[in-house]
C-alpha cells in the first residue's frame, strides 16, 4: 500500500514538474515571438493592408534585387539567361523559317541562308547561346543576305551585355554588402547591471572579430515599451533614447579589442524606477545599435541586437577578457566573452542615490538660522 502511494506521489510530482517546464517554455516562446529585433539583428515585423501596389517595388528594381534571398536571386539569374537564349533561339528559328533556310524546304545549291548551318530549333538555340555569350565557334554565322538577321544580331548582343552587367553587378553587390561585415560584430548574450565608478550602470559587451577597424563608430540604444499618454492614448513600441558610453565617449570608438559599454542609471534613465525584484515583471525591449564605416570598402554598416528583461542580469559584471602574455602581446579570451560574475549591487538605483544623499548629509553640517543661544542664571539659594 505504501509503495503504491509513493509511486502515485512520484507520478504526480513528475507531471507537475513537466507541466511547469511546459508552461515556462510556452511563456519563453511567446516572449520570443513578441521580440521586435532578434539577437542577430533581424526585424520581426510585417506590413499589412498596404494601399500602394507592389509594382512600386519594381521602380527601385536594384534595391529589390539586392534584398532578395540567394535562392530567389540565383533563380532569377539562371532564368534570365536561359529565357533570353531560348527567346532569341525562337527568333533565329523564325528568321530561318521565313527565309526558307531549313532543310524541309529543300533549298537550292545556290541558296544563301541568313544564318549558316541552322537546321532546326536546337541549332537555332545553340547559335543564340554562342551569340549572346560571344563564344564564336565559327561553324554558324550570319551572312549579309538579310538585314533582319543583322538587326537581330545587334539587338541580342546589346541586350546580352545589359543582362550580364545587371546580373553580375547584382551578385557582386550582394556579396560585398556591409551587412555581411556586420556579422563579424558580436554582442554579449546578456546585459548586466552593477556598480561602475560608484554609479549604477547597465553594461553590455561588444567585440569586433576582425582586425580591420570600423571607422567613426557610434553606439546608442532604444528602449521599446508600451506607454499610455496622459490623454489615454496607448502607444505600442514607444521609443526612448538610451545613451551608451565608454570611458572615452560614445563616438569614434577605438574598436581594436572588445569594449564594455555602459548606460548610467540616473534619475533621467527609464531604468531608475526598476529594481532587482521587479525587473522580470517589466515589459520592455532594449535595442542596441552600432554604426560605423567599413575600413576596407568605405561602406557604412549597422549592427543591432536586443535584450528583453530575462536577458538583463541584475547584480553581475562581466569576467575579464583581455590579458597580457609573457611575450608582451595582448590576448583576448573569447571564452569569457559572455561570462558573468556575481557582485554586490544595490537592489535599486533609487536606494543607491538615497544612500549617497544620506552619507553626504552626514558629512555636512546644517546651521539653523532660527536657533538662539540663551543663558540661564543658576542660583544656589532655595526658598522654602
TrEMBL record:
Family the entry assigns: Belongs to the inward rectifier-type potassium channel (TC 1.A.2.1) family.
Keyword Membrane among record annotations: yes
Stretches assigned to the Potassium channel inwardly rectifying transmembrane domain: 37-177
Site location (Role in the control of polyamine-mediated channel gating and in the blocking by intracellular magnesium): 164
Topology versus the membrane: Multi-pass membrane protein
A GO cellular component annotation in the UniProt record: monoatomic ion channel complex
Catalytic activity: K(+)(in) = K(+)(out)
UniProt protein name: Potassium inwardly rectifying channel subfamily J member 1
Keyword Iron attached: no
Domain of life, per lineage: Eukaryota
Membrane-spanning parts: 76-98, 149-173
Any one GO BP annotation for this protein: kidney development
Record key words, sorted: Cell membrane, Ion channel, Ion transport, Membrane, Potassium, Potassium transport, Transmembrane, Transmembrane helix, Transport, Voltage-gated channel
InterPro entries xrefs: Ig_E-set, IRK_C, K_chnl_inward-rec_Kir, K_chnl_inward-rec_Kir1.1, K_chnl_inward-rec_Kir_cyto, Kir_TM
GO molecular function, one term: ATP-activated inward rectifier potassium channel activity
Domain Inward rectifier potassium channel C-terminal: 185-357
Subcellular location as annotated: Cell membrane; Membrane
